[in-house]
Structures are given as structure tokens and as C-alpha cells.
Amino acid sequence: MNSPFERADFDLIASWVQPGERVLDLGCGDGSLLRRLIDERGAKGYGLELEDAEILAAIANGINVIQGNLEQGLAGFADQTFNHVVLSRTLQTVRHTERILGEMLRVGREAVVSFPNFAYWKNRMAVMAGRMPVSEDLPYEWFDTPNLRFFTILDFESLCQKMGLVIRERQVLDDAGRAVTEEQNFLGSLAVYRLGR
Amino acid sequence: MSGVGTVSAQIAHFSEPLHLKGGGVLPAYDLVYETYGTLNAAKSNAILVCHALSGHHHLAGHSADESGNPTANVGWWDNIVGPGRPLDTDRFFIVGLNNLGGCHGSTGPASIDPATGKPWGADFPVVTVEDWVDAQARLADRFGIDAWAATMGGSLGGMQAMQWTLSYPERVRHALVIAATPKLSAENIAFNDVARQAILTDPDFHGGHFYEHGVRPLRGLRLARMLGHITYLSDDQMAEKFGRRIKSGAGSYGFDVEFEIESYLRYQGDKFAGIFDANTYLRMTKALDYFDPALDYGDDLARALARARAGFLVIGFSTDWRFSPERSRDIVHALVHNGQDVAHAEIESVHGHDSFLMDDPHYHAVVNAYLKRIKL
Are B346 and B317 a contacting pair, CB within 8 Å? Predict the structure, then answer.
């Protein structure tokens, strides 16, 4: 999941982080994003990760990684510890959606969230053809997907409104990682948000 | 894979008095230690491994036992130290020592008090984790080591590894704090006190001066170890290893050894009482109880740890109920709060508190990955 194409959202996230800022990456995997934010942006990075193999890889990668389950919230992290709390391509796998969004904005000043847009036209085509979509941003079959929640850009923004979250910036990418500026809920495969209170 | 081979201990004598946290002074003392690997020219590759309650200087390799068999004693953490092992002796210079107050060759309650010509016994001062670290710093001076590449330990050893970053922030680059806690809980202290009471109320204890009576408080020490041992294991592990199995046939409706767990604990108790010193046991448990670096900082662990300059690796174990994985998280969160460098792993293991001594591939891989990052 670390090819330049697949991690087009990393470019955006990197551009939002200023030198010296503290970043918490939830579900940080082997720490690729944090490594980049540390090396290129001079950030102070921490990662939360559940899987043993990823913990090992992140430690080898020189990352400040903490083993834990984000479904259990971020208890232990003090309020407003981080400048940015990142949840990259993971929100759709989280059961307690509202709680994690609330926790991100408790421990951080800004939440950075990316997720696959289920309303992307290719996904709509797949469903029209009678099959669940499999794509660059939804790369699983229905029977092995870790994704629990399928939602669209419009769905997400309606949740933000309900929760009183402020959308500071929205960037939408197609499945080649190119910026989409028009008809985003139709032409966009991946959405990346900066949220605040 | 073979380890470090046959090793022998050395003794360093210190004649400069050591002022202790509890107010006492040790006029002079010996520390017994072993080393593995080679100290490099820059003296930048040294790792100090601190021992837990019943540990000592003999970490790795084989050494002679009392009967003279040259390879009978295998080091207590041999599975992690050696060429190609996580504490790689091809790369690092590893130091293990026996702490002050111990009973494996360093000055302790059974040593002769020069003021009286008799064993110190009860008069040997209560030593703390801070005192041990001060004594270890003098051993580092003896080697010419300005800063450890890492300090490391499990349980009480992990507390020393942590204390190093606070007592000598400039002299430790990394701390590996494993199966430890920033302070004991009331329950932890309660278990320790029952163990102490077992020793203190043994008629053979003689107020700590049993040496001159030619006896040892074996019954108390045995009970203390049996109790302690229960807290080192997990319920699941005991169920799996012993269950409710009875040693021979049916129950006898008496009080002899019946269940296998009873047999196991009594064996462990007897073995330990045969080699360990009761006064040392009392002092080790007190050092545990007193350890609380946040005490002087309004119980704020983050403030207490703020002066550390080291990077940390903090490891907890899923079934450790003595120092539970949440206590490791307390340390991690305090460091994160301060913006300090810390990596953390919570290892799935059935072995309870003793997990830190086990040869678990993932656990050892985590230690290895972290140590590999250290630039020499």
C-alpha cells in the first residue's frame, strides 16, 4: 500500500504539515507517512498501530510507534497534544465512527481524514452491473474486505455537519491520484479532509 | 545458535563512600559483574542490563557452579544475549552486574561490616533504585563509558533502566523498559509485605542477624518465593501447565503435597531458599515499593520524565498482572505528552510477568529492531 500512486494522499497531507508540528498517525502501518513527514517536513511524529508485524516494521523504520487499538479510543493521550491527527484510508474500517472523529479532535487541533468515496463513478458502474466494486481505492472483494462502512463524500459531510465539525479543506483525487475539482462526489475516488472544531 | 560461551565474573572494588537515599552511607563496596562482547574505541557501544528481584550479574553464557562444574550455570537472560541475538555481542559490549545489597558477590547483608568484623545482617542499609543507579554509574566510570548506548531491564531491572534517564540524563542514549511500572500499586506492595512478613516472623530470622546463629530463615524465604512465584505466572498458564492434576492417584484428604501446582511451588520455594539471602530479599522488595519517580512531581509522571534525554522502548505483556500492560502505557503516554521519543509494543504472551524472560520470537524481534537503530 505504499506505491507513489496509492499514497497520493500522502502528498496532500505532507503539504499541510509545518516544520516542528506534532503529528499522530492512527493506523500508521509501517510508518511510511510519518517517515516522510519527519524527513521532508521536520515534523515530530507518533503512530498508533494494532498489528504486530506493522509495529515491528515501524520500529525498524525509526518511528515512535505505540501499539494499541483505536477502536478503544485515544484514552491516555492528553487533550490537544498534537497539531494534526491523521486517519488515512482507515475510517471505513472503524466501527465507532463518531467516537474516533471526536477523539481525534480532542487530542489534536486538526483531524486529517482520507477515505474511499463509494459514489465514485466506477463504483456506481460496478453496482449498476450487479457487482460490488473492486478498485485501486477499494482493493478488496466483499468477502475479505476490512471495510465495515461504505459511504460517500456527501454522506461524510452530512455527518460532519451533524457533529458540528468544521471542514477546513477538502481535496478529492481520482483513481490515478489526480486532483478532481468538479463533480467531486461522482469523479472522485479518494477524499482527503482537514477538519476542526 | 551458540551464545557467548564460558564466562567468568569479575569484581570491582569502590573505596569512595556511597551516600544512600535512605540516609545511610556505605563506606566501601564491591560490585561483581560480567561483560560480553568488546567495548569499541569510542566506548559508544555499551549496554547495561539491570537485573530484577532475584537476578544477578550472570546474564549470559555458562559459568561454574558451587561444585566446580565449569559450565553448569546458564545465564538468566542467555536467550537474548550473544552473537546474532538481539543483544548482539558482535556489535555491543554488554555489562551485567549484581546490585548492592545482593547475594551473588556484590556487597550485601551477608558481607562483613568493616566496622564490626561481623556480617552486616539487619544493619545493611535499605538501598533504592536510585542508589543502585549511582553505584552503576561508578562502574561505568571504571570502564570509561561516558554514556551507555542503552540501559535495559525487565521488571525491577526496567525501573533501573528508566531511573538512569532521570539520574544521569546525559549518560544514557536509549532505555529499554520492559514489564515495568512507574510505581507499585497498593496490591503490589501488599504482596511484597506478605512476603516480607513470612521472612520477618520466621524464628530463624533473628532480627536479620541469623548468620551469627548459624541458621537461615528457610521457611520464611520459601514462603516468600512461593507467593512471589504465583504473581509471576498467569492464571491461564497455570491452568495449562498444572490444571487440577494430582501427583499420584486420588486425593488423600490430608495436607501433604497433592496437586501438581503445590509440588511445583514447593520445589521452587525450596530451590530459592537454598541459594538466596533473606536480608537481600527484604531489601529488593523495599526497593520495588519505594520506586516512584513521580512522587516529587505532584504524582505527574510526565513532569518527572521531562528531564530524560534518552529514546525509549517500552514493552508490556498481555497476561502480566503484576505490572500490567497498562502500566507500560502510563510510561508511554507520559513520554508522548512531553514530545519525547518512544516506541512501544504490547506482546501477546501466556507467561504473565515472567514473559520478559521468555524466548518469544516477536518480542525478541522488537528488541532487535530497536537496538539495530542505535548508531554507535
Answer: yes
Give which of A66, A60, A96 is closest to A82, Cα–Cα.
A66
Classified as helix, coil or strand, A73 is coil
Give yes or no for a contact between A173 and A163, defined as CB atoms under 8 angstroms apart.
no
A23, A55, A74, A80, best to mutate vs chain B, most B CBs in 10 Å: A55
Query: Is 80 exceeded by the pLDDT of residue B304?
Result: yes
Ranges of chain A whose pLDDT falls below 50: 1-5
> d(Cα B288, Cα A17) in Å, to the nearest integer?
43
Give the pLDDT confidence score for residue B368 in this predicted structure.
98
CA A187, CA B5: separation in Å to the nearest integer? 66
The pLDDT tens digits of the residues spanning B53-70 come to 999 999 999 988 878 787
Q: Is B155 a catalytic residue?
A: yes
Task: Please write the tens of the pLDDT for every residue from B166-194.
Answer: 999 999 999 999 999 999 999 999 999 99
CA distance linking residue A195 with residue A168, whole number of Å? 5
Q: Does B334 touch chain A (CB under 8 A)?
A: no
Q: How far apart are CA B26 and CA A184, in angstroms?
A: 75
A116: cell is 474511499
ipTM, interface predicted TM-score of the complex: 0.94
Spot the catalytic one: B353, B354, B355, B360: B353
Mean pLDDT of chain B: 96
The minimal CB distance from A64 to the residues B330, B343, B345 is found for B343
B332-to-A80, A132, B102, B311 alpha-carbon distances in Å: 17, 42, 30, 11
Residue B89 has pLDDT above 70, yes or no: yes
Separation in Å, CA of B307 to nearest CA in chain A = 18
Which chain B residue lies closest to A48 (C-alpha atoms)? B344
Residues whose CB is less than 8 angstroms from the CB of residue B142 and which lie 6 or more positions away in sequence, other chains included: B12
CA dihedral B176, B160, B119, B189 (to 10 degrees): -110
**Cα–Cα distance for residue pair A73/B345, rounded to 1 Å:** 18
User: Which residues, including other chains, have CB under 8 Å from residue B248's CB and lie 6 or more apart?
Assistant: none
| B320 tagged catalytic | yes
Indicate if the pLDDT at residue B1 is higher than 90: no
Q: Which residues of A102-137 are buried (b: 16+ CB within 10 A; e: fewer)?
A: bbbbbbbebbbbbbbbbbbbbbeebeeeeeebeebb
Does pLDDT of B225 surpass 60?
yes
Region B96-100 average pLDDT: 98
Judged against a pLDDT cut of 70, whether residue B82 lies above it is answered with yes
Query: How far off is chain A from B325, nearest CA to CA, in Å?
Result: 11
Identify the burial level of B113 via C-beta atoms within 10 angstroms of its C-beta, where 0-12 means exposed, 13-18 middle and 19 or more buried. Answer: middle
Report CB contact under 8 Å: B369, A60: yes
Would you say the C-alpha torsion B124, B127, B131, B135 has a positive or negative sign?
A: positive
Percent of chain B topping pLDDT 90: 93
Residue contact A55–B365, C-beta within 8 A: no
User: Quick check: B255 pLDDT over 90?
Assistant: no
